[in-house]
Amino acid sequence: MVSVDEVRRFKPDPAVYAHLRHRLESEPGDTWLISSNAFDVIGARYAGLHAAWVRRSPEAPFDPWGIEPDLTVTDLEALAERLG
User: Residue 29 is part of which domain span?
Assistant: First the structure.
């Protein structure tokens, strides 16, 4: 588990996503963030990560400001099926 407590910043601060990549020893294009919070997804995409938005309610807006998630799913089971 990776926590923002270690960097004392909060999403969508780019330092949070850099910390995630550092801890995972991964490149941005090889790293996924999964969240039901659109701001988390937007921050991850802006930082160059892949991101999946778990849209728990069909009425939930994404408000992407021009940034879209790589995947949109309704639950984690659907995410697992999509990522195979």
Answer: 4-83
